[in-house]
Each structure stands twice: as structure tokens, then as C-alpha cells.
Amino acid sequence: MGRTTPLNCTATGRALLSGLADAEAEALLVTGGDARLPGTDAAPRDVPAVLERLRTERARGYAVAVEEMEPGLIAVAAPVRDHRGDVVAALNVSAPVFRLPPDAVPKVVEAVVAASHRLSARLGGGEPVA
Length: 130
Description:
3-stranded antiparallel β-sheet
């Protein structure tokens, strides 16, 4: 709690980025020079890799990060949209991988996505506006 986490290697970060066009997301990710983005080897560590992951996550409506920010941590996040369809927040569930085994991830994804849709509805939101 209370710490800043990178956008590229966290499910919450990518759920928030999913509401942006690629160019907007890229502008937030670029750190200058040839520096690799933060995270473990499991994370997308360069801008093209992050953008590719974002395209997949936008299409499915949620992000999953397995040991991308730090070893032993798994997270699932989904965007929360306002009345304009803009992403204004993200709902996240994180756990140690030993408590959230791969076979349990689909149930967590289902719960997180359903809850994010309920929150979005309370904000008058829904799907993004084209």
C-alpha cells in the first residue's frame, strides 16, 4: 500500500492503459533512451511488447500478470469505465502464486470482470464508446 508500481508489469497498470490508444499508452511508457522497462523477465519490458500485450488484454477485457512485477505474485485486473466509456479505475485481485494456482485463475478472472462491470454500471458506464 502506498507505493507506486510500474504500468507495464502490473495487471492494474495494463488494465488502466487498456483504455488508451496505443500512442497515448506509449507516451506514458517511454522512459527515454534504450532503457528497458521495469519488471521481471516474465514481464513485457519494451514498449512494443507492452503494446502487443495491451491489444490482447483490451480484446478480452482484463489483464493477468504472473510473476511480472516480483517473483511469487499473481494479479488479475479489469478496467472500470465511466458514463463516457472511459477507463477511470481498475479493480485488482493479487495473491501469492501458491494461494492462487493456475486452475483457480479463471474463477478469479470471472469474479473480477463481473465486479468491474458492476462498478462501471454504477458510474453509468459500460463498453467503450467508439
